[in-house]
Write a structure and sequence with these properties.
heterodimer; A: 324 residues; 14 helices; globular; B: 381 residues; 2 domains; 6-stranded mixed beta sheet; 45% helix
Chain lengths: 324, 381
């Protein structure tokens, strides 16, 4: 008898279905609650408004790219280039803005345009040249990083003063950046639940051949999903510029792995066709709170890697039970 | 009691300093002259030089002890930073709880991406002062400004940021360090030599500024480098690049500039494998592994020091600031820790410590018992 059968043995069919579908997400949020209890009991400053808003703002940085990554993974794809694109976006936005308020619009358009372009190129290579997404975006990771470091290995450009102040803007106690993330969360959830595009993502991830035969516009959808993912990386690049005030090529390395980790913890299958926004949010919050708590408790960051590893294995084990 | 404690510790640091300062005092070190052109071209130099005569009025930060000090460190990503952290905890222990009640610690894993949110996490705990080892001059500028806006005095330790809005920086003039290494290479080999450069991690301030200094010297001497590659402060990466260079340039290589002893070890290892004579290397350090290899192979080198023990100065300065004492805006660790001066192969024997493991970067202020606890002492045979 496997774990699933032992756990769900006494339940009705509908209860079992519900628990199998949402059990792992409950587990993720359950773990978040445990972290909150640890934080509240071990550090008097963990549950302060200042720290919680700090966690919310920090989570937005990972959360936005994780949402884009989740959409790609739903189609059984992957985007390994987002960290490098974040890096390039920071540089492009800083150079174009160059400290001038008047250049803000141009910088935002140029940066989002860069994201769109990179996403469409990914889509083209995956759709038309038939190269596996892993290979396409792995190559892109190196290429975009190389371009970034060719532009500059030292800081360049700068953000305008209002753009820097945007980072600390709040509505009530809530940072505006956290609200932007919340808005994107809602939009992504609505996209997946109520639009044909959202349903196409699940269909392509479930079985691309069947999806194609069923009339799903596979190519168009994949163009769209890679574009969204790359734009999410560019948005994050803009937020980093607001956070730092200058274009620093040191930023962005490893963001893709953090995003993939959050998405996996949140229950999205790496094989596509299964995943939820609420799960990804759980993954993002879990990583964000863990990082915050480790600093609060003065724990070495290597422990964070260890904890992340354990969480990933535990989460995947839970999802495997669900699949049984 | 508190003042007694501070006085005792200052005396201890002075004692430790003077006990080591006699090493290699008689050696002659060439210094490179900084030109106005170089100053004009380097915002880093402009910042350091302008702060040399400045003093920060810290009366606004005056508080009664004990203090809660936040340390945003590089993290235990290599032996240098592990010993940096060990010195920090050791010094805080010596200071006692009546002086520093809590050391809030952030481990950046040598990454600006990790450090920026970590500084935010540390500030959320409302420390009395922040000691920051910046992992990126630009990336950490805005967080430093936000800390100062919050009323938390920022003491930069071992590296700089782009903004000028902090209390003080403890370090050394990295531009001059890079320039002096390059100048030594030119003086040793001649301006007609073929040189290679191996820098640290691209984008990391320490590496970028040292490179700036070296390139300024090479350019002013009209030297065109054979190649310049980042060795990532890693022996493995350093060896990989050197193997390629040996295959490409072979005997043409007359000298190598490197931004750290870890990479120098990789360079030496690549030459050992190739069975070739090692050319002069500018960029060794007081690192036991490097010194052992250098003495074994007998090549010429110029070493500089970037002591992990400088964190003890940073902590003392943080306390000084919280006492409301006027504080110089640039504190060169060489002035407080004179043993941390450059040296050459002629003095290698004075700097090697047989009891230390190969990865220990000196000078070390902690007693050997502490090093033993951390696993940095070799077993006696």
């Amino acid at each position: 008898m496997n774990l699933s059968a032992r756990l769900f043995g006494g339940l009705s069919a509908s209860q079992r279905l519900f628990l199998r579908r949402y059990g792992p997400i409950f587990a993720v949020y359950g773990f978040i609650i445990v972290l909150f209890i640890i934080g509240a009991t071990q550090s008097e400053r963990f549950l302060t408004v200042r720290n919680l808003t700090n966690v919310a703002r920090q989570s937005a940085f990972l959360g936005i790219v994780a949402l884009g990554q989740m959409l790609v993974i739903l189609t059984a794809g992957i985007d390994l280039s987002i960290g490098s694109l974040v890096k390039l976006s920071i540089l492009v936005s800083a150079i174009v803005m160059n400290g001038e308020t008047n250049n803000q619009g141009a910088a935002i358009v140029a940066t989002l345009g860069l994201g769109l372009l990179v996403g469409l190129i990914h889509g083209f290579l995956v759709n038309e040249v038939k190269i596996a997404p892993f290979i396409v975006t792995l190559a892109s990771l190196g290429l975009l990083r190389g371009i970034s470091l060719s532009i500059s290995t030292s800081p360049v450009g700068s953000a305008s003063r209002p753009f820097i102040m945007f980072y600390v803007q709040k509505i009530g106690p809530i940072p505006v950046i956290a609200l932007i993330f919340a808005l994107l969360l809602v939009l992504t959830a609505l996209l997946l639940r109520y639009t044909a595009f959202g349903k196409y993502l699940y269909a392509i991830g479930g079985n691309i051949e069947v999806a194609h035969l069923s009339g799903v516009p596979v190519k168009l959808t994949r163009y769209g999903v890679y574009a969204i993912c790359s734009i999410s990386a560019s948005i994050t690049g803009l937020l980093w510029l607001s956070r730092m005030g200058v274009g620093d090529p040191a930023i962005g390395d490893g963001v893709e792995l953090q995003a993939i980790t959050a998405v996996i913890i949140g229950g999205t299958s790496l094989f596509g066709g299964r995943g939820t926004v609420i799960g990804t949010l759980g993954g993002v919050l879990l990583l964000g709170i863990t990082a915050n708590l480790l600093v609060m408790l003065g724990v070495n960051q290597f422990v964070q890697g260890l904890i992340q590893g354990i969480i990933i294995v535990a989460a995947v084990a839970l999802y495997k039970q669900e699949g049984d | 009691m508190f003042r007694k404690c501070i006085t005792m510790l200052l005396m201890l640091s002075l004692l430790l300093g003077t006990s080591l300062v006699s090493i290699g005092q008689d050696s002659e070190m060439m210094e490179f002259e900084i030109t106005q052109e170089m100053i004009d071209a380097s915002p880093y130099l402009q910042s350091v030089l302008s702060r040399l005569d400045e003093v920060y009025d810290t009366s606004e930060f005056r508080k009664e002890p004990p203090y809660r000090i936040a340390l945003a460190a590089q993290g235990t990503s290599n032996a240098w930073s592990a010993l940096f952290d060990a010195h920090a905890y050791w010094w805080v222990e010596l200071l006692g709880e009546e002086v520093v009640s809590e050391l809030l610690y952030g481990d950046a894993q040598a990454s600006a991406d990790v450090q920026v949110p970590q500084v935010e996490d540390l500030l959320a705990q409302e420390p009395d002062a922040l000691i920051l080892v910046p992992m990126g001059a630009a990336a950490l500028s805005a967080p430093v400004e936000r800390a100062m806006m919050q009323g938390v005095p920022v003491i930069l330790c071992a590296s700089a940021v782009e903004t000028d809005n902090f209390v003080t920086e403890v370090g050394t003039n990295l531009f001059t360090v890079g320039a002096n290494l390059a100048q030594w290479l030119i003086d040793t080999v001649g301006a007609d030599g073929n040189f290679l450069m191996m820098t640290g991690i691209p984008g990391v301030t320490t590496s970028v500024i040292m490179e700036e200094g070296a390139l300024a010297v090479f350019e002013s001497a009209g030297i065109e480098l054979l190649d310049n590659q980042p060795g990532m402060w890693s022996p493995a990466e350093g060896k990989k690049i050197m193997e390629t260079w040996i295959a490409q340039y072979g005997d043409e290589i007359d000298g190598i500039w490197t931004g750290g002893a870890q990479m120098a070890q990789g360079i030496i290892s690549a030459y050992e494998d190739a069975g070739m004579e090692i050319p002069p290397i500018a960029g060794g350090e007081m690192q036991n592994g490097f010194l052992r290899s250098a003495m074994e192979h007998g090549f010429e080198f110029y070493a500089w020091m970037y002591p992990n023990a400088m964190i003890t100065i940073c902590l003392d300065v943080a306390i000084h600031v919280l006492q409301g004492e006027p504080t110089p805006r640039f504190i060169d660790f060489v002035d407080t820790m004179p043993e941390a001066r450059p040296f050459t192969d002629a003095e290698a024997e004075d700097y090697i410590r047989p009891q230390w493991s190969d990865d220990v970067h000196g000078p070390i202020l902690m007693p050997d018992e502490k090093l033993a606890e951390l696993g940095f002492l070799v077993e006696e045979e």
